[in-house]
Amino acid sequence: MKLNKAQKSFKDHMFSKVSMVENPEEEFSNLFNIGKIPLDARLKIYRNHIVTTLSNVLVMNFPLVEILTGTNFLKTAAKLYLFDNPPTEPCLDRYGNSFPEFLANYKYASHLPYLSDIARLDWKMNETRIAKDDNSLQRSDLAEIAPEAYETIIFKLKKSVRLISSPFPLDKIYSLCGEKEDNEDVLDISPEKTYILITRYNWEPQIRNLKESEYNFFLLLQEEKPLGIALEEILKNYPEFNFVDFLQNYIELETFSAAITK
Amino acid sequence: MLFNNNKLLPSGPDHLAPVGIGYRFEHHDDLLIQKPDIGWIEVHPENYFSGGKPRHYLEKARELYPLSLHSIGLSLGSTEEVSNLHLQEIKELIDIFEPFNISDHASWSASGNAHLNDLMPLPYTEETLTTICRNIEKTQEFFGRQILVENPSTYISFIENEMNEQDFMNEMAKRTGCKILLDINNIYVQAHNHDNDPYKYIAAINPNYVGELHLAGHMEKRFENSEQTILIDTHGDYVCDGVWDLYAFAISKLGSIPSLIEWDTDIPELSVIVAEAHKARAEIFKQFPISGIKESSST
After folding, report:
1. What is the CATH number of the domain that holds B95?
2. In B250-261, which positions are buried (b, 16+ CB within 10 angstroms) versus exposed (e)?
3. Who among A30, A32, A91 is closest to B156 (CB)?
């Protein structure tokens, strides 16, 4: 068998149900020496390593989902996910970006309508944690910009900054997950539109609630709209929006990496 | 960031420091605080592509120790070409951290759009040699320097093998100019699993090709209703006596070469791993009390 065909066949057997490893295809079996230890036992060493490692990676990358559902539930979901969604690159910090979507359609999680959004929060916090480093915009940097150029300023968000909105109170669920003691109180998770900013502080992701207007303004900045256009758009829908307060708050929170003028 | 390039090679004033350890997240703080007496550190570059905390720790550790980058993702044995993106991400680390060695494995991981998170076995054929040599050459050209390629642990062997693993490794090094990273534990594991002689394996390796040695622990899996066992390369235990004996034989044949203790699962206290490194260093000193280390030609 040609090498590329053998490698594809090996991959297919690894990302298959265990029954395929126990009864490998004949053409594939014929590739290997059969010693005293059966072929399926040898193949399972590779497969077990792949499946166990990827399941553990998903548990690490989705810690809030683990707290809410338990490790066994998450690992079972992870195993079903990984067979159809093998990694596409060797950096496993970046594995699992479509897992929230998988959970949205996972029948055993249908009683947890917020779970997929919590998984999205996990994923974005993971992205914040591993984002490349960049500098923070300082207030003094703005002093160097001529007033006539203000309208053209493009505020660049730091690479670690993420935004998320949800119909569920993600902030409250997040707080609940962080409590060390068992809390007997019942959390009200009835739909409540939430807007969240995720930033990195002391290497760890931090979440902060945003007003709807702030969230939408951040989205415009994320699209790299010049300040004049972004402000015009936001004030149309949110006339109470206060740009000076916004800028002061989020420069202090080290949300921006630069202010560029054309 | 400036590093002391005199420390690119792992040697100390007593010529006794060519043994390093894998630097893992569990010991990020301990290594910086304890500053153990080791020759160098090794990391998997794939764990440091991002910024944030891991990169911060690597910068601090690199100020203290020479560094070897040991990749697990180039997939040198794949029929597909090595990923340019992956090469670029490693190159960025090379430019920043100035490692004295860069290595990966004689194995494959990538097929189609999938990347298997394991080191998959290769048949030792002319077709495979051509494939892996093409990928090694591309990698060396991209990095502008020599790489090292490690012999894998294997649990399966191919009927169509046209040569044994040691001849495959020698020929690969001869054709590409790469060095061999000889993992002594992997030789021990594959010898048990495929019923061959690990001493003959090492004796057949051309000493001029070897640039780094690895040591690690493994586990023995016993099958129900059978006397048969298989060894699994877990990097999760002490180096066993059989591997120490093989290591002593290896350095007697190959010379004193930078060596590494790998411990990646069930990770113990840092001091336990450092003690293993000192054990390897003692073996080198026993055999080479005066001459010091053989310099890696990859620098």
Report:
1. 3.20.20.150
2. bbeebbbbbbbb
3. A32
Mean pLDDT, 10 residues at a time, chain B of 299 residues: 44 59 96 96 95 94 96 97 97 96 97 94 98 98 97 96 98 98 98 96 97 96 84 96 97 92 96 97 86 44
Residue matched to tokens 């642990």: B153
Backbone angles phi, psi at B281, to 5 degrees: -65, -40
- Quote the CA–CA distance of A20 and A25 in Å, as a whole number: 8
| Residues of A with Cβ-Cβ distance to B193 under 8 angstroms | 37
Closest residue of chain B to A57, computed from CA coordinates: B117
Neighbours of A70 (CB within 10 A): 11
**Residue B241 and residue B218: Cα distance in Å, rounded?**
12
Asked if residue B10 belongs to a domain, the reply is no
pLDDT digits (tens, 9 = 90+) for A170-227: 999 999 888 766 666 666 777 779 999 999 998 999 999 999 999 999 999 999 999 9
**ipTM of this predicted structure:** 0.89
Q: How far apart are CA A161 and CA A163, in angstroms?
A: 7
Please tell us whether the domain made up of A131-262 is placed in CATH 3.90.930: yes
* Dihedral sign computed on CA atoms, order B147, B152, B156, B158: positive
Full 3-state SS string of chain A: CCHHHHHHHHHHHHCCCHHHHHCCCHHHHCCECCCCCCHHHHHHHHHHHHHHHHHHHHHHHCHHHHHHHCHHHHHHHHHHHHHHCCCCCCCHHHCCCCHHHHHHCCHHHCCCCCHHHHHHHHHHHHHHHHCCCCCCCCHHHHHCCCHHHHHHCEEEECCCCEEEEECCCHHHHHHHHHCCCCCCCCCCCCCCCEEEEEEEECCEEEEEECCHHHHHHHHHHHCCCCHHHHHHHHHHHCCCCCHHHHHHHHHHCCCEEEEECC
In A, which residues are within 8 Å of B265 by CB distance? none
A84 to chain B: nearest residue by CA? B114
Residue A128, CA atoms < 13 Å, CB-side half-sphere: 23
Closest CA to B42 of B29, B27, B24: B24
Amino acid symbol at B285: F
The whole domain housing B59 covers: 17-287
Pairing of strands A162-166, A194-201: antiparallel
- The residues spanned by each domain of chain A are 1-123, 131-262
Kindly give, in sequence order, each residue whose CB lies less than 8 Å from that of residue A181, ignoring residues fewer than 6 positions away. none
Kindly determine whether residue B50 and residue A200, on different chains, have CB atoms separated by under 8 Å.
no
Give the separation between CA B19 and CA B284, rounded to whole angstroms: 9
Contacts of B80 in chain A (CB under 8 A): 4
Cβ pair A130:B52 closer than 8 A: yes
Q: Which two tokens stand for residue B182?
A: 């000889």
Q: Cβ B114–A11 below 8 Å, yes or no? A: yes
| Any domain includes B6 | no
Residue B250 lies in a domain: yes
- Report the domain count for chain B: 1
